[in-house]
Structure formats: C-alpha cells, structure tokens
Amino acid sequence: MNVEKLTCFHFRNYETMSFSFVPKCIHFLYGKNAQGKTNLIEAIYFLSHLRSFRTNQMDSMIMHGCNEFCVQAIVESNHRKEELKVIVDHQKKHLFRFQNPVKKYSDFIGIENAILFCPDDLSLFTSSPKNRRRFIDMELMKLSRTYTSTLSSYQKLLKQRNQALKQSNIDECLVQIYLDQMIEVQSVIIKQRNEFLNSLMNKARELYPFFSNEKEEIGAKYMTFIPIDPDMKSHMKEAYDKVFEKEKRYHQTLIGIHRDDILFELNENPVCEVASQGQKRSFVLALKLGLAQIIYEKSGQYPILLLDDVFSELDDFRKRQLIEKLPRDMQIFITTTERLNINWNREVRFYDIEKGRIKEVLK
Ligand SMILES: Nc1ncnc2c1ncn2[C@@H]1O[C@H](COP(=O)(O)OP(=O)(O)OP(=O)(O)O)[C@@H](O)[C@H]1O
C-alpha cells in the first residue's frame, strides 16, 4: 500500500500542501523542531484511523483561526487507486471516497492502512488499560469491518443497559434483555481480541531477538473477567448474576470487555515493572513489525509505516537491526531533526520541512 499523493488544507501549520510520494520508497522528512514533520505523519495516520495519535480533540488539528481542515490522499492499494478525503469542521468529520460521501466510519477506516512507531508508544506498557484496548481495537477495526460493527453494538448495548440501571425503579427485565445481547457480542469480541493478540505475539516473539542483545522471552496475556474457553457464555452469565445486586446499587455495569486489559511480560514479569527503556523499545518495535507481517498475510500488502522521531531514540545496534528488518515493499516515512548517515540499500528520498512547507532535496 502506498500514499501516492497527499493534500492538506488548513491542517495544523499546513495552509495548503499537495505533494506526491514514491511507492515502496523510504521518505526521509528532515527539519528543525516545530516545523511540521509530525503534522505530516499525523495527516497520513488520520486518514487511516480517523483519529490522531496525539490528541482526542479534532479541533486542535484545525489551523489556528480557521473553521475546518481537509486531508485528502490518492492511495494505491493492491494495484487499485483509492481517493480518500476527510473534512473536519468544529462539529464533525465528513468522509468521502472518490468524492462520494461515506456515512459509516467502518466503511472508511483501514482503506489506507498505516502503522505508527513513535517515542510515546512506550507508554503502551504504563498507561491505562484503555490505551492497550485501543491499540488492539484499532488494528482489528482496520482489518475487519465486522469487528467494528460488533464493537459498536457492544458500546451501544452497554450505554442502554447503564441507562436502564440508572432509573430509580429499575426494569430488571429490560436490563436482562440488554445483557443477553451483550453476552453474545462479548463472546465474539473476546475471541477475536485474544486470537489477534496471540498471532501478534507469535510474530513479535520471532522478531524480538533482532532488537535485543540479551536472551529474553516476551509474552502477553489478554485479561478479561472470565476464563477464555468454549464455555465463555455460561461463565459470563454466572459472573453477571454474582455482581447484579452490586450493579443495582452502583447504577452501572461493573464487568465487561470495556474493562479488559493486556498484560505484557518480559521473562514472565510485567513489562511495566521490570523492563528498561531499551527493552520496552525493542518490544514495541517487535510488536509493530509483527503487526506489519500480520497485515501483509491478511491483505496481501504491507501497510504504510510511519516512524516519528524514533531514530534519535535507538542505539546503533537497534537502528541497524530495524533497517535490516524493514520490508523492501513497504512505503516508509521517517521524521528526524538530524541528517542520518546510513546506508539504506534501497531507494530513499529526502525532504526538507520548514514552516509547514515541504520540498524535495538531494540529501
Ligand atoms: N492547529 C494548529 N494551527 C497552526 N499551527 C499549529 C497547529 N497545531 C500545531 N501547530 C504548529 O505546528 C508546529 C509543530 O509541528 P510538528 O509537531 O509537526 O513539529 P515537528 O517538525 O515534528 O517538530 P519536532 O522535531 O520538535 O517534533 C508548531 O509550530 C505548532 O505551533
């Protein structure tokens, strides 16, 4: 998959920008601090995920003093062209594919499939469970439209059940109707999340030794409120029966997949407790490149790889190993403030970014 052309209008510090990029090539975005390198990567990421990796506030991406932004791209996907456009105003996102409006996010997310590796990724191990669930959910949403609709059904049912539990006179029959449906969708979601995590870890386990000098074992466990086995639905019924009196007192659903977590492990200890920064970096690199492999196996093409400011964080050994492991067919965007003296052994293009303007340079 390749971004062939990217157009930004009133996006962060890009007033109007339209630029063509080369397929399967490494694009090296160089510039001093605060010039717009990450903004450009954010625009590509936004078209893939319909959200930013830096903020939950859509408004903050609109150029100061303007009312809306537009990000548009021509993307090559499995030898076919896709034309994608998103306009964001202060109220909402407007999606277009080949200039036709797209109503459902699930029909848009993942058409352009980009994966990101940035310094903030290390917080995956230490931040709240919500971020770890989001990591898995975003990737599954890009890979499967049915996952997106199953997840949004769950969120809708959870909201409805919570509303029913909030009433002073709780309609227990109605609460049970929502619960029966929630149990059905949760068993699907748990299975998909768990299978995805297992296959991702199989890839990551193979890749980790390339980024680590030591012999270490990495692992991950999907943590949910019931045992993951063929009897999941009856386990759920039991668990909800046990907690129902408490739910009535607290007026909300107290257990469910909206509280699940992933426990990442290094030599069977929680990563957040034992791993050094370097080990966390190696772990995330293995996860992201493992993800690229999974996407390749499922879709027949590599995603676009966005590496934001990561080379300054990696030691020489990890830099070399990363370069060696980057698939040759992958289009890659790398931001950095330093001109790197590296033999890439493949086609590389260099760009200077200054005050929201991009210009191709020789080196
Ligand atoms: N909504 C916005 N409107 C206008 N300018 C913005 C907006 N949001 C951010 N900026 C500007 O974008 C610039 C930051 O761009 P970006 O985050 O891409 O920096 P960078 O080149 O990656 O720098 P660094 O190397 O420090 O990470 C800053 O000058 C900031 O003021």
From TrEMBL:
Protein location: Cytoplasm
Any single biological process term in GO: double-strand break repair
UniProt-listed Pfam families: SMC_N
A GO cellular component entry from the record: cytoplasm
Sequence ranges assigned to domain RecF/RecN/SMC N-terminal in this UniProt record: 3-340
Ligand binding (ATP): G31, K32, N33, A34, Q35, G36, K37, T38
InterPro entries: DNA-binding_RecF, DNA-binding_RecF_CS, P-loop_NTPase, RecF/RecN/SMC_N, RecF_2
Annotated TM spans: none
An example molecular function term from Gene Ontology annotations: single-stranded DNA binding
Alphabetical UniProt keywords: ATP-binding, Cytoplasm, DNA damage, DNA repair, DNA replication, DNA-binding, Nucleotide-binding, SOS response
Family matches, as SUPFAM superfamilies: P-loop containing nucleoside triphosphate hydrolases (SSF52540)
Annotated NCBIfam families: recf (TIGR00611)
UniProt function note: The RecF protein is involved in DNA metabolism; it is required for DNA replication and normal SOS inducibility. RecF binds preferentially to single-stranded, linear DNA. It also seems to bind ATP.
Family that this chain belongs to: Belongs to the RecF family.
Protein name (database record): DNA replication and repair protein RecF
Organism of derivation: Holdemanella biformis DSM 3989
Gene: recF
